[in-house]
């Protein structure tokens, strides 16, 4: 248990009772309090403050869940680590705070912490005083021992800066662990071998630290930082080792060693205050007295090696060293006293104002121009004096949050002003979202629908794979074409949702490769139609080209070129996620940057080249006998494909953000659906509804 923390609580209670007994301090008012233990944890400190402000066990930020309460202010905390986050929250709500131990230099910034005060000096003042002291005595060669935590790290950094200004050099710096004295003993040899006689002790004060240091630095002159000098319990634990020490201790205009304080401490006994949990805890922890609360006794039994006993009733709180007041400074008492004095002054001011006549003493107005409200800035009037000005609305992307602002402040890149231009907020993010954009759901539905239709057609072709109409049109290429069209429909999902680097790389590349396979299959079909027609002539040399080798070679060769283009694109300058904050004010457009425009247009251009070649060959072969020919369907499908993608290019270049993505998805769905409808729907019609003409004899007679 922390003895000093309990002494602080007793001092706090004594101050509250003193104030409430004084009729002149807060007339007709009673000062109450709510105590929370931060446990030295900033997260617990924030939760405790929000609990007090909300009035509930579970904090509800920005809400008070109980009836009207008059919170006068906050006292605390002891350490800077917990005080800073508390001060940041209370600054937002305008509550005063007085700390009795936080020495962080950043807390003196009145702009950041306008309602924060403290009863101790800043660390910076202490470092300045120590450096001047060393310079005065000519001590230019010193050692530093500090705690191995954030407080110790910050103190050493700031202290070294002030020592350097005075020409003081640091022989060694030892960072010790205040929890385990074994860490301290590792550095005993360093301290024994040092040539300096002056050592500065800084960081977090700890009794464990004191015990371990007793034999190590008994012959050294110690200079203590404010964290140690203000800790009465640690200094008083073993005052002998600090006999040769120097410390700057703040001088207060009073102390607590008064008869009134002595009587107050004598009266603190469980027999007089049986319901007081604070007194009960002090006697249990430090006098080892059994509590009336059996839960406390059981908890202590399992958490401590010491045994509780039945006390005689003669024990007194003043029997404990740290409650005698010999080394105690009024840090907490002074904080409460200052807070109550401020409340007193405010009450007196309100009383005086209520007795004044509101119009008799009204201050006259003497301004050339009205005040510029937040969101505006002052601009000089042409030909007028400096006190005459115009109020100009802040420019786009800028704010002003003070009255009569001379200039506006630009918002960070990822933020944008509110409507009144008084505060910056996070920009809205724009991308093709499933949850916000209905068109994303529509595209998903259409893509899945076409995928299922393609799956059904593939099933029909597999089921009727031995029928003449399927075999006559190179069924292996038909199967490959159907699979590639399915993948093209599924590639739409890479364009939906929040873009990331991996989806940006896969978008066009996945569609480009799958569609190149599809168009290569159509090209192979067209070539096979031409070869088959020429091979029908007697003695034709084209017969040796008949077979699957030619069609497979065409598909493999044409697709490989597209794969090489895509891999080169990825290797040199791949697509990536881009945050566009310039196109639309107040909005971050999350989109994919192609990385290399040459790579993007090479993929699209190669698909166009394949489609054009297929279109020309199919157009030339359209008049061949129907028994071998599906060239007219290929001609129409390639005409549709080229029309869609030629139209897509100017639309793609003229749109931004998610509209660009919609153009790409529309082009993919339309071109893929065109291939599916033109090539396979006529055949499915014959297979399902005209089976009588799906025979070899009808094919040879050119009847379909």
From TrEMBL:
Matching Gene3D superfamilies: 3.40.50.2300, GPCR, family 3, nine cysteines domain
Keywords: Cell membrane, G-protein coupled receptor, Glycoprotein, Membrane, Receptor, Signal, Transducer, Transmembrane, Transmembrane helix
GO MF entries: G protein-coupled receptor activity
Top-rank taxon, per record: Eukaryota
Start and end residues of each G-protein coupled receptors family 3 profile domain: 439-703
Subcellular localization(s) per the UniProt record: Cell membrane
UniProt membrane topology term: Multi-pass membrane protein
Any Pfam family the entry gives: 7tm_3
TM spans (from-to): 441-464, 476-496, 508-533, 554-572, 603-621, 633-653, 665-688
Database matches in InterPro entries: ANF_lig-bd_rcpt (IPR001828), GPCR_3 (IPR000337), GPCR_3_9-Cys_dom (IPR011500), GPCR_3_9-Cys_sf (IPR038550), GPCR_3_C (IPR017978), GPCR_3_Ca_sens_rcpt-rel (IPR000068), GPCR_3_CS (IPR017979), Peripla_BP_I (IPR028082)
Annotated GO CC locations: plasma membrane
Entry protein name: G-protein coupled receptors family 3 profile domain-containing protein
């Amino acid at each position: 248990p922390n003895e000093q923390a309990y002494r602080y609580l007793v001092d706090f209670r004594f101050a509250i009772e003193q104030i409430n007994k004084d009729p002149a301090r807060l007339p007709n008012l009673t000062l109450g309090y709510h105590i929370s233990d931060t446990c030295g944890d900033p997260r617990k400190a924030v939760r405790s403050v929000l609990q007090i402000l909300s009035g509930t066990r579970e904090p509800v930020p920005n809400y008070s869940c109980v009836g009207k309460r008059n919170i006068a202010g906050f006292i605390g905390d002891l350490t800077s680590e917990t005080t800073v986050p508390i001060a940041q929250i209370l600054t937002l709500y305008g509550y005063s705070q007085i700390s009795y131990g936080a020495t962080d230099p950043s807390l003196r910034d009145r702009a950041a912490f306008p309602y924060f005060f403290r009863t101790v000096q800043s660390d910076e003042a202490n470092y300045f005083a120590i450096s001047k002291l060393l310079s005065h005595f000519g001590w230019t060669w010193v050692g530093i021992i500090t705690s191995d935590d954030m407080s110790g790290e910050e103190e050493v950094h700031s202290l070294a800066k002030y020592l350097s200004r005075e020409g003081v050099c640091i022989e060694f710096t030892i960072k010790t662990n205040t929890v385990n004295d074994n860490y301290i003993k590792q550095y005993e040899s360093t301290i024994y071998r040092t040539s300096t006689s002056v050592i500065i002790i800084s960081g977090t004060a700890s009794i464990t630290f004191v015990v371990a240091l007793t034999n190590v630095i008994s012959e050294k002159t110690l200079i203590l930082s404010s964290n140690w000098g203000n800790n009465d319990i640690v200094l008083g634990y073993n005052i002998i080792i600090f006999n040769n020490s120097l410390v700057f201790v703040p001088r207060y205009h009073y102390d607590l060693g008064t008869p009134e304080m002595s009587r107050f401490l004598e009266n603190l006994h469980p027999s007089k205050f049986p319901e007081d949990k604070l007194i009960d805890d002090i006697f249990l922890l430090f006098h080892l007295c059994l509590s009336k609360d059996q839960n406390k006794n059981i908890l202590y039994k399992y958490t401590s090696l010491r045994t509780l006993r039945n006390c005689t009733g003669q024990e007194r709180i003043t029997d404990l060293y740290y409650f005698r007041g010999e080394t105690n400074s009024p840090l907490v008492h002074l904080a409460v006293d200052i807070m109550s004095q401020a409340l007193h002054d405010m009450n007196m001011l309100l009383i005086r104002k209520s007795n004044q006549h509101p119009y008799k003493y009204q201050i006259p107005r003497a301004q050339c121009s009205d005040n510029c409200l937040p969101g505006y800035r002052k601009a000089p009037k042409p030909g007028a004096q400096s006190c005459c000005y115009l109020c100009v609305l802040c420019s786009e992307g800028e704010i002003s949050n003070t009255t009569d602002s001379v200039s506006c402040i630009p918002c960070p890149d990822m933020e944008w002003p509110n409507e009144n231009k008084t505060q910056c907020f996070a920009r809205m993010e724009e991308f093709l979202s499933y949850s916000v954009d209905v068109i994303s759901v529509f595209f998903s539905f259409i893509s899945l629908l076409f995928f299922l239709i393609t799956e059904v057609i593939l099933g029909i072709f597999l089921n009727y794979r031995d029928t003449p109409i399927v075999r006559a049109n190179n069924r292996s290429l038909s199967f490959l074409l159907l699979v590639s069209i399915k993948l093209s429909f599924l590639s739409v999902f890479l364009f939906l949702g929040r873009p990331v680097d991996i989806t940006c790389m896969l978008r066009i590349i996945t569609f480009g490769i799958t569609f190149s396979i599809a168009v290569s299959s159509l090209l192979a079909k067209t070539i096979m139609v031409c070869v088959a027609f020429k091979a029908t002539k007697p003695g034709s040399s084209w017969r040796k080209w008949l077979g699957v080798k030619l069609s497979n070679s065409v598909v493999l060769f044409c697709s490989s070129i597209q794969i090489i283009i895509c891999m080169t694109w990825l290797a040199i300058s791949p697509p990536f996620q881009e945050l566009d904050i310039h196109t639309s004010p107040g909005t971050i457009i999350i989109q994919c940057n192609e990385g290399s425009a040459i790579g993007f247009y090479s993929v699209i251009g190669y698909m166009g080249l394949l489609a054009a070649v297929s279109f020309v060959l199919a157009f030339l072969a359209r008049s061949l006998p129907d028994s071998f020919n599906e060239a007219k369907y290929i001609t129409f499908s390639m005409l549709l494909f080229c029309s869609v993608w030629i139209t897509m290019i100017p639309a793609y270049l003229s749109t931004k953000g998610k509209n660009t993505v919609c153009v790409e998805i529309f082009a993919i769905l339309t071109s893929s659906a065109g291939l599916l409808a033109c090539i396979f729907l006529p055949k499915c019609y014959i297979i399902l509804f005209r089976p009588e003409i799906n025979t070899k004899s009808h094919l040879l007679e050119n009847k379909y």
